[in-house]
Structures are given as structure tokens and as C-alpha cells.
Design a protein that fits this description.
By secondary structure, this protein is mainly alpha-helical. It has 2 helices and no strands.
Length: 66
């Protein structure tokens, strides 16, 4: 295992960080809004599925349960 040179390491880290393309404020806002919308749609979908399953099970159990 080679011993790393701390100065070279810092230089390489700075070089790699300079290659990063950071998102603009607008991109971050739009992405955040899209995440909230998708989370809300997912919550609505699973709530409807839960309601459908619960109604179906209640009907089946009521029919066979007497």
C-alpha cells in the first residue's frame, strides 16, 4: 500500500470538484416541486388502493361471515 501525499490529494480533490456541474437555483426548485408532486400522487394512489382492498375485504367477509 502506497503512502498518499496529502498535498497531491488536495490538488486532485480540487480538480475533481471543479468538474462538477452544479444545478441552478431554478433547477433545484423545479426538481423539489416535482418530488413533492410525485410524493402526493403516490400517496393518493396508495390511499385509493387501500380503500379498494378494504372495501372488497369488508364485502367478502360480510358476505361469508353472516
Amino acid at each position: 500500500m502506497a503512502i498518499a501525499n496529502p498535498v497531491k490529494f488536495i490538488q486532485e480533490v480540487r480538480a475533481e470538484i471543479s468538474k462538477v456541474v452544479w444545478p441552478t437555483r431554478r433547477e433545484v426548485m423545479l426538481t423539489t416541486i416535482m418530488v413533492f408532486i410525485m410524493a402526493a400522487l403516490t400517496a393518493i394512489f396508495f390511499s385509493l388502493v387501500d380503500l379498494l382492498i378494504r372495501t372488497g375485504l369488508t364485502g367478502v367477509l360480510g358476505y361469508f361471515g353472516g
